Amino acid sequence: MTTVATSKSFFKYAKRLSIDRQEEVVAAISGFMQDPTAARFNLEKVKNRTGYWTIRSSYGDRILLRQTDLADPAPVPDAFEAIAVGNHDLIYKTYFRK
Predict the structure, then answer these.
(1) What is the structure's pLDDT at 98?
(2) Phi, psi (degrees; rounded to nearest 5) at 28
(3) How far apart are CA 70 and CA 52, in angstroms?
(4) 41 lies in which domain range?
């Protein structure tokens, strides 16, 4: 079974969302842990960022995950840490802007 831990930064981002969007995020993480290959989550590796993945919580929001075991050879790792949540620009442009 896939596990997803949450980080302090994840909660910081989640607090910015409306209650409805927060509920969608909780449901997405729960569903992802049950079936990480389900098409509705659109699991994708983040290009040029080793160990980072995204899943979709709703049409406009994505959850940024960091693989916790980089040595895991499976096509879909089984342990992640959720580190951010928000729209596409927040995840792909703002979070990685460093």
Answers:
(1) 57
(2) -65, -45
(3) 10
(4) 3-94
Query: What are 42's two structure tokens?
Result: 């659109």
Contact 65, 82 (CB under 8 A): yes
Burial environment of residue 62 by CB neighbours within 10 A (0 to 12, 13 to 18, 19 or more): buried
pTM for this entry: 0.92
Share of the chain above pLDDT 90, in %: 71
**What distance in Å separates the CA atoms of residue 26 and residue 98, rounded to the nearest whole number?**
28
DSSP sequence for 22-62 = HHHHHHHHHHHHH-TT-GGG--EEPTT-TTEEEEESSSSEE
Give me the number of domains the chain comprises.
1
Closest to 57 in 3D by CA, of 10, 23, 94? 23
Q: What is the CATH number of the domain that holds 67?
A: 3.30.2310.20
